[in-house]
Amino acid sequence: MGRYLMRRLLQGGAVLVGVTVIAFALLHLAPGGPLAMYTLTTSMGAEDLARISHELGLDQPLPVQYARWAANLVHGDWGRSYRDSRPVLVDIADRLPGTVELMLASLLLAIGIGVAVGILGALRRYSIFDYLATTGAMVSLSIPTFWFGLMMIFVFSVTLGWIPSGDMYSLGRPFSLVDRLHHLVGPVTVLGLVLVAPWSRYTRSGMLEVLYQDYVRTARAKGVPAPRVVVQHALRNALIPLLTLAGVQLPMLFGGALVTETVFSWPGMGRFFVDSLGYRDYPVLMGILIFTAVLVILGNLLADLLYAVVDPRIRFG
Predict the structure, then answer these.
(1) Minimum mean pLDDT among 20-29, 186-195, 244-253: which range?
(2) All domains of the chain, ordered by start, with CATH?
(3) Where are the transmembrane segments (predicted)?
(4) Most buried of 16, 100, 111, 310 (most Cβ within 10 A)?
């Protein structure tokens, strides 16, 4: 286990270096740049632009800029935002709780509904419920997240007035758990329902593979109650594909949160990323991309390690 863990960490480190190199190059080679907002000011001359470019280090060759940024990163300095000169880690720490709250609530909703629908679809194979669940999953995968969010706001906020149209809490009011949950309804519903489809399909496929195995039929023949057969015998052995899905859904969650936070004006990392992208705030963008890449690497590693917990036959060399 120790050798396997060390090997995976080294592989993850190599992947992280590759991600930073590609992201850094793409961001700096994209049209525009941090100096674009200064060109809109009529009082800003060429000398002023050159001075700002030198202060930000943008006049250096791209490899030199990357080497300087990577060296600072190794020493714990993630840089400062070009917009407000605040440390990138401080900006991320301020917005991380909102994104974590949204992602966890959406993931719990997706797992709860998706696993239940998948189990029922496998137990009632080719029934009307199974066909409806399959159709609903295809529709869910086909609907763009931003359109779903806009329709949610139009119907349930503007027309019916049931949910707030945006933000994390009501301005001018003291903290209230009910108020926070009320503001969570819209974005969690949008992001959670989009993720229900893969959870339901993976659960259904995994359950169908184990429901007709000999050990399941033996348990039924011994008179084991049906709920116990489904949960303890079938579902546990169908969890391995779900663990893989949990690992790979981290980038999907962040990508969906990026759109959802923008539509619902949710003050999280996704909205912060979109705003920073408009300003070409390179240090902030790189900080968020690194943070996301680390989550993906650790998520996949955790999913692999959990395989041995679910299935004792799995051993790591």
Answers:
(1) 244-253
(2) 2-74 (no CATH), 89-310 (1.10.3720.10)
(3) 12-30, 102-123, 135-163, 183-200, 238-264, 284-310
(4) 111
